[in-house]
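DATA SHEET
Item: assembly model
Revision: 1
Owner: S.N.
Input lines:
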Amino acid sequence: MTTEYLVLSALLFAIGALGVLIRRNAIVVFMCVELMLNACNLAFVTFARMHGNLDGQIIAFFVMVVAAAEVVIGLAIIVTIFRTRRSASVDDANLLKY
Amino acid sequence: MGETITFWVLAVVSVGAALGMIFSRKAVYSALLLGGVMLCLAVLYAVQEAPFLAAVQIIVYTGAIMMLFLFVLMLVGVDSADSLVETLRGQRVWAGLAGIGFAVLVILAIGNALFVPEPAGLAAATEQAGGNVQALARLVFTRYVFAFEVTSALLITAALGAMVLAHRERLEPKATQKDMARARFAEGDPSPLPAPGTYARNNAIDMPALLPDGSVSELSVNRHIARYDVERGHLPDDPKLAEALKHAVEEEPVTERSHRHEQASSQETDSQAEVTK
Amino acid sequence: MEPAEIIPHSGGVIGASWLMIALPLLGAAILLLGGRRTNAWGHYLGVLMSLGSFVVAVLAFLQLAGGRYSIRLFDFIPGIADISLLVDPLSISFCLLITGVGSLIHIYSIGYMSHDPDRRRFFAYLNLFVAAMLLLVLSSNYVGLFIGWEGVGLASYLLIGFWQFKPTAAAAAKKAFIVNRVGDFGLLVGIFLMWTTFGSLAFGDISGKVGEASQGTLTAIGLLLLLGACGKSAQLPLQSWLLDAMEGPTPVSALIHAATMVTAGVYLVVRSGFIFEGAPTAQLVVTIVGVATLLAGAIIGCAKDDIKKGLAGSTMSQIGYMMLGAGLGPAGYAFAIGHLITHGFFKANMFLGAGSVMHGMNDEVNMRKYGGLFSVMKVTAVTFIIGYLAIIGFPLLSGYFTKDGIIETAMHHNQILGWLAVAGAGLTGFYMSRMVFMTFFGKRRWDSEAHPHESPAVMTVPLIILSIGSIFLGGYLVLSNRLMLFLAPAVGRPEELPVFHWNSVAGLATLALVAVGAVLAWFKYGKAEVPEVAPRGSFVTVFARRDLYGDALNEALLMRPGQWLTRIAVFFDNRGIDGLVNGLAATIGGSSGRLRRLQTGFARTYALSILFGAAVLAGALLLVGNL
């Protein structure tokens, strides 16, 4: 039964990665990153159950904490960029190049 | 059996919601669909003997993080729909290839792996502590206590970082009402904007005013209302007025007056922008 | 008779002989470091330091009494060389000449350079020269000698190019420096060879160990030392710089390029007598070089219209005589040194006389623009003529005794060398007479703006003193073999002392040839009209006028191949090395420029490549897992 969970996790992760690649709105890109993190969490929880070991859940817990911190900072950065550039598109922030 | 049904229902829902999230034009829909995925995952956690994580998932993710996303979406502008036209050549094709390839490879890897036929289950692990939450707490405060303490430092740093990033330095004294009035007089046109409909046959707010000399004042109509009218075809019969409305929509309001109003509301933003420049 | 032992010594005037070097060195340091502040009194300080050196030299000479003393000053290169002085009859003779004539020329220069804004610098260089020259002759080993040797080379370079604003002077200075490098290279290699052969560089040590070295080694050392001597003394084949060196101020020509520095080569050969006496081949080469140079210098002197270049040719020729004497062993040393000392007097006398003439003639050097100057500058003319008589070997004057001594000794040694030296004396008679007749007699051919006048006393008094030396010194030194006996402790002497015969075949032949030369010159330049523009002349004249094509030879043999080599090297450097390096750089730069385009600035492009990487990694893991 656990294999299906892992496959679901892989699918969600791939969908999140695809979203990161094709969306330009920084907030949506960020949401896709969150989706990838959640997919990972699902895998961790599944592993915990599979092995009868709570460490997987602990790691998922820490991932959530880090994700919370990351979201706070990431959104603050997006707001700051939006404030100066009037745009939330990741393609507009392309000054750092050749 | 019950778990299988739950899993398949939730799996279909969450994959659909995830796909919807990445393909919807409006960011708010994306946020809501992401919330749906998270809720599905919370149930899956609960099914997989992780009640604490299921609760945390709902409280932290769906409750706090998604709210934060929505806040920022509102701040940035909720009404604008993103264009889904790809501007980078080949990006979408290659992204699709890479995404599908990655998924296929990982799934193949999972399929290849030699798993125990039946999961071990967590009964043994939680039994001793007297429950899932107690078992997790025991681990967090014993084996993972250092990581846990470091997490607190991370959270404080994140809070501080968010404050620093979002903080706007005021570089000049705040404009008082007196200053604003002085600026308005200095521009030479102290009177308020003409009200819509005044001096005309009609006093609706989407009808431009006629000035005393009979000409149409584009300034008298709010640009957004004018756009609404133009987009839905609610244009007045008088061609002169209709022309003025279209004009008001097409052209950015660049008259001094409207500019000044906008400036007054976004003065702090501009000063911040100057600093960034 | 063998040279005497060298005794370590300290105290007394001889112990303080380092003052001879220190005083002018101090003067040079004060004048060079003091800068413009010393302009007012700088020349007096220079003269004073030179005179102080002279006084020390005289006192040391009086105390010497035929001894040989070494004074150790300090360690220079531990285990190899220290700086110590060797005060013996040979070095003290040179000291007296250098400081004596040097002081006179210093005094003369006060007048000669009075209008030059850089007079202070001139005196600083002169003092530097005196100090270096004294170190050269006083040092008791080859290292100290080499330091002095380079020091005088530097001073010579600075003084030839003293008027740097003249491109010819700057070029002449460079030429002198570069030609001297060739000789210095020889000297340096010779010193290296002596170190490896004898394990010491002190004169005393080497002379004691000469017997241990093979004939071939000694010959090689001797030839290398001779190469050094040729460079410094303008002997063939390194003679070309001396004629150009006349671009320097005349006192410099008198002091450095006539009286002292150019004789350093003779000093080197005489001082290294122990080497040459062990190597007859090297000695023979020394005499051949001497004779060839004395003839070449004389021929060049015959054709020059520039009075200083004529005198320079004469200097070459006279040093050729000294070289010849120095190559003849102990019998010739005393005559060589004697001729060196007397030549120092009469040639300095004539150079200063020429300077006095130029001083009165608006710095005109072309003798065809002179003529009839006897009546307007009597002191200069009389002293110049005394010098002239001394150099051609007029009976009883200085040159008569010393030059005749060399010719006689050469005649004893080798008839061919002797007769060539006699012929050289005849040529000397011709070109010196030509010079005197063109300058002081005949019709006045002056430029319209020339107002010749006698020079001030500060210039004429040194002339008079030098002319007195030109008259009597030779006789004093040679008669009863005074100089030979005096020098014997330092260089040894032949078992049989030579006796002076006024009526020897060689002596009479010399006199006759000189008379013929003088009479020829009288007919051509005294009695006949001298054209103001030089006639084209026969090919012999042109040959002599062009310095025997020495410069052309150097140019063809050395300069042009050198330039070709340089061009090849530059070409190789530009196309080969630079091409390789630049090509590599251009390749890297070009490919980087293209690779740079990968940095589009779009975060999503980067993310795509990361996902590709992750996919490839997953694939790789899958493959490895399956294996």
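QC remark: Chain C is about 75% helix and 5% strand.
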